[in-house]
Amino acid sequence: MSATDPGALARARTELVQAALEEDIGDGDWTTEWTVEAGSRARAVIVAKQALVAAGTMCVPEVFRVVDPGLEVDLVVDDGARVPDGDIMVQLSGSTRAILTGERTALNFLGRLSGIATLTRAFVDAVAGTGAQIMDTRKTTPGWRLLEKAAVRAGGGANHRVGLYDMVLVKDNHADARGGVAAAARAALGRNTRGLAVEVEVRTLEELDEVLPLRVDRILLDNMSLETMREAVRRTRALGEARPHLEASGNVTLKNARSVAETGVDLISVGALTHSAPAADVSLRMTR
User: CA-CA distance, 194 to 231, in Å (whole number)?
Assistant: First the structure.
């Protein structure tokens, strides 16, 4: 399964929306049922209450399609759009009950995913012009991975591996269990019958020197100082065009992201994009 497979993303969205609505509605939205007349119709808009980058927009019509297929949903912005504070993102028209029942679920998806896209865009802007690419990690909300990785792309970032199955990443625990980083890397390379890309995490320049002759696809520089990363870049670039790409990871923040990028690394992975992004502030307003 690819993070960019439209079919897989659509299936994940449908399943998550269905589960979220069942969780929220249960056996009935009694507040709405008891306060709003059955035939009542209304118009509403979803607006941004802060400047943000939109993501998860397709979840909104999915939510309201399940609640009431007759509800008209007009997406004013697409994923990846920069939305100023106060701008309309979605327009709704139809059953008042349906709008109110689906409101919170739609806002939860839109706010959560737009928050990821907005934070990603801040990181991307922070390293602009350096040549480094911002990437996500597997530190995602269980079940939400494809949607959250799509939100990272909407913010201008790139996706790391989707799961354990689509790329080899030899980390410190693999190395410790095998008796060293080079031994673990050789074992993975020797058994890679699937032809997967192979990345190896190193913690020191000594480990880097062990891995460089193995010609893996990517080397992850884990929690290295800026000075050490610069030296790692120098040693790796000495290999010429056949060199592996270098990925920096560990304690990367908006404050230091540019300094990390300026060491010359190719990629910067940031777990915070998905595990710590604050939800964007979006609101539904009835316009009836």
Answer: 33
Does residue 184 share a domain with residue 242?
yes
Strand ranges across the sheet with 88-95: 72-75, 88-95, 41-48, 282-286
Q: What is the pLDDT of residues 117-153, one digit of tens each?
A: 999 999 999 999 999 999 999 999 999 999 999 999 9
What letter represents residue 227's amino acid?
E
Structure confidence at residue 245 (pLDDT): 97
H/E run at residue 226: helix 226-237
Q: Residue 56: how many CB atoms within 10 A of its CB?
A: 27
Q: What is the pLDDT of residue 98?
A: 98
Close Cβ partners of 270 (under 8 Å, ≥ 6 residues apart): 123, 134, 135, 136, 137, 252, 257
pLDDT at residue 142 in the model: 96
- How far is it, in rounded angstroms, from Cα 137 to Cα 163? 9
Judge whether 222 and 249 are in contact, CB under 8 Å.
Answer: yes
Helix (H, G, I), strand (E, B) or coil at 246: strand
What pLDDT score does 4 carry?
79
Just list the catalytic residues. Answer: 104, 139, 171, 201, 222
What's the confidence (pLDDT) of residue 288?
A: 63
Distance of CA 81 to the CA centre of its chain: 16
C-alpha–C-alpha distance, residues 111 and 229, integer Å = 36
Residue 1 belongs to a domain: no
> Residue 106 maps to which CATH number?
3.90.1170.20
C-alpha to C-alpha distances, 171 to 9, 21, 81, 168, 264, nearest whole angstrom: 28, 38, 36, 9, 22
Residues of the chain with pLDDT under 50: none
pTM for the model stands at 0.95
Domain coverage including residue 93: 6-119+277-286
